[in-house]
Amino acid sequence: QMQLVQSGAEVKKPGASVKVSCKASGYTFMSYYIYWVRQAPGQGLEWMGMINPSSGRTTYAQKFQGRVTMTRDTSTSTVYMELSSLTSDDTAVYYCAREKGVGFSESDAFDIWGQGTMVTVSS
Amino acid sequence: DIVMTQSPDSLAVSPGERATINCKSSQSVLYSSNDKNYLAWYQQKPGQPPNLLIYWASTRESGVPDRFSGSGSGTDFTLTISSLQAEDVGTYYCQQYYTTPPTFGQGTKLEIK
What are the DSSP calls for chain A, one per residue? Predict the structure, then answer.
């Protein structure tokens, strides 16, 4: 079945970096955008950015510019999100999600989500 | 950025009754050239990722029960659960995907009365 499987929980110190993986299966990896969305404890959903797995082109939320890097490995159908200079405000569950529409011509809703990766930033 | 505002923030409904959640966008999410509203609804249960219910404002995702329906156009949208079931408890989010960045409402927590 179509799914996104994320890496496990992380605990990091302030100032460190974290890299979360998201492995796709059950569909054509290169044909759908992957987005990253985070959710702080008890809070709502915040878009961080997106990657085109075919070209590797990325678009980042202004809030995270300079601090986030999204990459992909087409040989393993995996996308990565690395966030640097962590603070306690970055403590959140990080989700990857697939955009529903095939191809990259029109934006669409997010139909497949990873299970989430809890990142805790604490000294 | 387009701001999405949901109402109410929380809602308690008796089993079998109708639940209605509203969502308002700060600008229209209707694309006139194709007459589509770039608006989705998600349900999130504790400890789980969001689950897509409705897209294009009124199209039900495959496998979603038909008691869930979406309506509205332009800037005002509604998610309706026609007959609330116990398993419908959770937090509901609207999202616009008309422009980048895609933005979400603050969420509406739905409980059983």
Answer: --EEEE---EEE-TT--EEEEEEEESS-GGGS-EEEEEE-TT---EEEEEE-TTT--EEE-GGGTTTEEEEEETTTTEEEEEE-S--GGG-EEEEEEEESSSSSSS---EEEE---EEEEE--
